[in-house]
């Protein structure tokens, strides 16, 4: 994937010429050519055999050839929480500024244009720098775009839908419209306009808004519920740069176990060329935590985001037959009341025949006897990490249980949305008290009440248990993640129709939903960068990234060091520089201007050959002499990470 800084775009003849050396006839070439990239970088995707790909990789003009992996999809109060400590004007200061021409490109599952978060009332005319389009498709017209949602594209590779066995490829891919909800949620988090009285069926009620409500949104639908083809993500990045976006937000990534190489990663390659064109790329760090070496999107030219909680929690109250009551984490619209108690049983007491007690305790599929479970509230443990809370809930629900209580050894920061099914998740201390009660009486009973919102929750922020951790598996000499932002229980716009699948209450689908993931953290950073750019339009995005990094907080709302869910102190491989503080970043003092030459030096130090770097970047860059991986720590990056610290390392200083 070489740069096309000096090349014209729009002609795939050179790509067909390359393919013609592998495939005899031009007709066949056109069948096998899927996408051409010719705006920010030169390249293409094609259907090739392993042997053909191997031959192609040996050509001098080819930088890299890699499989088209399927990547994974990795707010009312969150912005108030981020701004409260620093704004002298109150939390409404940032979004009451004048209209902005900052354009945010969201590469995701598309967009639901009817959401009130994308209303263009009070938004000025579309900036002249915008060169993009509003593509029409099934159930999507040009009129669905406006002065807020200024562009929308979708992509469809030939035979890809059939190859991946998608059940409804026409509906899913044949339109910019979002049928998943992920893209709508991330777009509104980054740049949605203020929507008063937003809530998820009454929970998290308040004014929902993005980081820069006056920003323009351009949506690039590169994903479906089945995932995201790397070749399509590359095409979306290429188009976004051509269209004139200012920032690209990508809440997508390869699984941490499939990381291979910076120049074989479609997001890393696309992001490098975007950075080369002055367009920063913000990415989620992945949801494979809490294990180390799970961070993805770890190239130094990507702004990589970890996820944290905010000062809000959602809790169900569970009341035992002895009238003792406890709080459990949940988003549950339970229909149960205080007026009736239900038999309470531990999973191992209602085990199916010939089932190990440990399986029944964990409510593993097939481990419970439906006849013993029906009509009871079941208590499950969470000792088996491969059986999710959703699976446990489905197991007991299918067995006709009245509800479920899960005992988790680690305080879970992410409340589980169980819809109308009674649910509560408690820690070991409360779990022990519940089990002691069960074993102390012949007929234990309980009820689980609907969830309520707890504000000003402490401590916050806490590193989300799911948030992927560093060090980076590819190199430990760059600190990843870069930064942390809210990604737990974030309220934002959603596709209304999908709410019916979750058993949510009410006859009318909610316009907003509560979701968690580094996918939700990523657009918070995107929105923060857009906000700073609107205040300081002459700042480069490198300076803006530096400002957010050097002003990040490592303390929680109790004035103590940031913590994990295990209550241990968080380290930089978990939080990066810390939690973003967008208002403080407006006046950072010191700034580190990381340039493309720093990134090219990184590639040299990492071990890539000079000719490959020149071909990829379309430059005459010369690698520094005696390049070694240890020298990566020397590039002008706003943080320092040294994989193997030598006793001979000298002091580091800032050159003015």
TrEMBL record:
<keyword id="KW-0732">Signal</keyword>
<feature type="compositionally biased region" description="Low complexity">
    <location>
        <begin position="181"/>
        <end position="190"/>
    </location>
</feature>
<dbReference type="GO" id="GO:0004252">
    <property type="term" value="F:serine-type endopeptidase activity"/>
</dbReference>
<feature type="region of interest" description="Disordered">
    <location>
        <begin position="161"/>
        <end position="190"/>
    </location>
</feature>
<protein>
    <submittedName>
        <fullName>CO(2)-response secreted protease</fullName>
    </submittedName>
</protein>
<dbReference type="InterPro" id="IPR000209">
    <property type="entry name" value="Peptidase_S8/S53_dom"/>
</dbReference>
<dbReference type="Pfam" id="PF00082">
    <property type="entry name" value="Peptidase_S8"/>
</dbReference>
<dbReference type="Pfam" id="PF05922">
    <property type="entry name" value="Inhibitor_I9"/>
</dbReference>
<dbReference type="InterPro" id="IPR037045">
    <property type="entry name" value="S8pro/Inhibitor_I9_sf"/>
</dbReference>
<feature type="active site" description="Charge relay system">
    <location>
        <position position="108"/>
    </location>
</feature>
<feature type="active site" description="Charge relay system">
    <location>
        <position position="182"/>
    </location>
</feature>
<dbReference type="InterPro" id="IPR045051">
    <property type="entry name" value="SBT"/>
</dbReference>
<keyword id="KW-0645">Protease</keyword>
<feature type="domain" description="Peptidase S8/S53">
    <location>
        <begin position="100"/>
        <end position="564"/>
    </location>
</feature>
<dbReference type="InterPro" id="IPR010259">
    <property type="entry name" value="S8pro/Inhibitor_I9"/>
</dbReference>
<dbReference type="InterPro" id="IPR036852">
    <property type="entry name" value="Peptidase_S8/S53_dom_sf"/>
</dbReference>
<comment type="similarity">
    <text>Belongs to the peptidase S8 family.</text>
</comment>
<feature type="domain" description="Inhibitor I9">
    <location>
        <begin position="13"/>
        <end position="74"/>
    </location>
</feature>
<dbReference type="GO" id="GO:0006508">
    <property type="term" value="P:proteolysis"/>
</dbReference>
<keyword id="KW-0378">Hydrolase</keyword>
<feature type="active site" description="Charge relay system">
    <location>
        <position position="519"/>
    </location>
</feature>
<dbReference type="InterPro" id="IPR034197">
    <property type="entry name" value="Peptidases_S8_3"/>
</dbReference>
<dbReference type="InterPro" id="IPR015500">
    <property type="entry name" value="Peptidase_S8_subtilisin-rel"/>
</dbReference>
<keyword id="KW-0720">Serine protease</keyword>
<dbReference type="InterPro" id="IPR023828">
    <property type="entry name" value="Peptidase_S8_Ser-AS"/>
</dbReference>
